[in-house]
Amino acid sequence: MARSFYDLNHISPSYPLSRFFTSWFLPSHLFVAYRALLALYASLVIIISNALTPSAAGSRFSYFTWLTYWGITCYMLVSLGHTYSYWRTGRAWLESWPRWLQFLHVLFYSTIVVLPWTVTAVYWGVLFDGFETKYDAWSNISVHALNSVIAFLEIIVTRASPMPWIHIPWFIGILGGYLGIAYITHTTQGFYTYSFLDAQTKGTGVTAGYCVGIVAGTVILFCIVKGLVWLRLWVTETKLGLKGKFSPRDISGGEATVGPEGEKINV
Question: Which GO CC annotations does the UniProt entry carry (predicted)?
Answer without folding.
Answer: membrane
